[in-house]
Design goal:
Low-confidence stretches: 1-33
Radius of gyration: 26 Å
Number of helices: 13
Structural class: alpha+beta
Largest sheet: 7 strands, mixed
Distance between the termini: 45 Å
């Protein structure tokens, strides 16, 4: 009996030791984090993995987790030090001095230097191949290394909003292939990408700031909006940031649905280089034909915020709610304008919509019905996201499109600059001298009240000129498995995955 008991004890000891060893190998020891999450995204990151060249908002919101600038945005809308530990604005917003944080590491293990910072800023300011990668950087006179810890950015003209552009990613000067090999300083680092399938990142253990909670993150491409509920319920994804109200209602109680705003301007964007949208009377007629409240009721159960121009409420001091009444629905007025423009019987046109964004598809369908009342026949053309980027956004080969335009940073300029006549991203081909003049005055004003006045003048011009058929800032419904918590909404189009954690922690 004693020998048998010893054998049993020995067996228990061996099994226990093996279990501990296996636990250690898998990273499940207390104090280590082997957690993972799969997040659904509506499109692949196809434009570029170089943060300076990325165009699509969907690409930027993922790369937000890999890259940081000298400063970075916080969820409350402020800017906080990142690669820089401190900064100083002087000469009325003409000179910005940054003190670099000690020991910040790139994902390849190298330490960030003043030369890397200068390289990154100079790269975005370079005009040798045309417009600078960051439009506001055309105002940079010089980027100087004062010493190994100090960078001084001097502008040609003072700009009190310029700090927002210092969110521009700092990348290593030594990286020869940033388009395919993203190396940043953020809480997550790049692991792999399978085109049209996924984008994989993992926690960066040498991150200078508060570490991420979840070790492994997979961004899974979910281009088929019709299967999102099945994907969530089936467990192939744990979270999707922008489900529709209908999809949210179909989810089981294993999911929490959080509600915020998308912080974008959803509109029927019109190509002013294409007839009949080169006629302001036609554009105004379309504005009079629609009822944003009806659209919101049909698309998102009445939730959302009506917009009358290219500014959303997160920019509280610039947002003008009164512009929502520039065009209250008036079918007879719309018909009268069409007759004056030479279209008494209406006309036909195409609304090109990216097929992976269900809220925009739903909105387009309501618009089609509303336009029928004024004799205008609209046909929806669904195209894949990469085709939308190449054909509509970059090629400008379209008549109209329903999308949402976001702000790349927390400035009024981020939403309004694209409508200046010479802007590289002016995909609607808008051209208005009065608008250009007002925008320039806003940019170079160092008085906040004056800057606000000119930004609002820009918004009024866009509204009265019916630059686009403005609709709403869409509500954002985030579906997340209750296994996870910590999601935060930002006044920008980003997903801060580093804040997520297991609910049991």
């Amino acid at each position: 009996m004693k020998r048998k008991g010893l054998k049993s004890l020995l067996l228990i000891f061996v099994l226990t030791t093996l279990a501990v060893a296996l636990s250690a190998c898998s990273g499940d020891k207390k104090g280590e984090n082997s957690s993972q999450i799969t997040i659904g995204i509506p499109q692949d990151l196809e434009d570029s993995l170089d943060p300076h060249k990325a165009v699509a908002a969907g690409t930027k919101e993922v790369l937000f987790n890999l890259f940081e600038g000298l400063v970075k945005p916080a969820s409350d809308g402020s800017f906080i030090p990142a690669v820089a530990s401190a900064y100083e604005e002087s000469e009325g917003g003409k000179v910005y001095t940054f003190t670099l944080r000690d020991g910040v590491k790139f994902h390849d293990g190298s330490t960030v230097t003043a030369e890397d910072v200068k390289f990154s800023l100079d790269k975005c300011a370079d005009t040798s191949a045309g417009d600078p990668l960051v439009a506001a950087f055309s105002n940079i006179e010089s980027v100087d290394i004062a010493d190994e810890k100090t960078i001084v950015v001097t502008l040609k003209e003072a700009n009190t909003e310029f700090l927002a552009y210092m969110t521009t990613a700092i990348i290593p000067a030594s990286n020869a292939n940033p388009d395919t090999n993203p190396i940043g300083t953020g809480p997550y680092k790049y692991v792999s990408r399978s085109p049209q399938e996924n984008f994989v990142v993992e926690k960066f253990d040498e991150y200078w700031g508060e570490p991420a909670h979840i070790q492994n993150v997979t961004f899974k491409i979910c281009a088929n909006a019709d299967s999102l509920v099945m994907d969530l319920e089936g467990g192939s994804i744990d979270m999707f940031a922008r489900v529709t109200a209908t999809q949210a209602a179909e989810l089981s109680d294993q999911f929490e649905v959080l509600e915020g705003t998308m912080n974008l301007v959803q509109a029927l964007y019109l190509n002013h280089a294409e007839a009949p949208f080169d006629d302001v009377r036609v554009r105004q007629a379309l504005c009079y034909a629609i009822d944003p409240s009806e659209i919101m009721l049909m698309v998102s159960d009445g939730k959302g915020t009506e917009l009358g121009s290219s500014m959303f409420p997160a920019f509280s001091k610039y947002y003008m709610e009164e512009l929502n009444d520039t065009y209250n629905q008036d079918v007879e007025k719309a018909k009268e304008l069409l007759t004056q423009a030479g279209y008494p019987d209406g006309f036909d046109f195409t609304i090109t919509v990216p097929s992976n964004y269900q809220p925009h598809i739903d909105t387009a369908q309501v618009l089609v019905e509303e336009f029928k009342a004024i004799g205008v026949k609209a046909e929806i053309q669904l195209i894949e996201w990469d085709s939308w980027l190449s054909d509509v956004y970059q090629g400008r080969q379209y008549q109209s499109t329903v999308v949402g335009v976001d702000a790349s940073n927390l400035t009024g300029a981020a939403l309004l600059q694209r409508f200046t006549s010479d802007a590289h991203n002016n995909f609607i081909n808008y051209n208005n001298t009065a608008y250009d003049e007002a925008f320039e005055k806003a940019i170079y004003s160092t008085d906040d009240a004056e800057k606000t006045k000119y930004y609002q003048e820009c918004e009024r011009i866009l509204s009265e000129d019916a630059a686009n058929v403005y609709i709403q800032d869409l509500p954002e419904f985030v579906a997340i498995n209750k296994k996870y918590t910590g999601y935060e909404f930002y006044p920008l189009y980003v997903q801060d995955i580093a804040k997520l954690r297991l609910a049991e922690e």
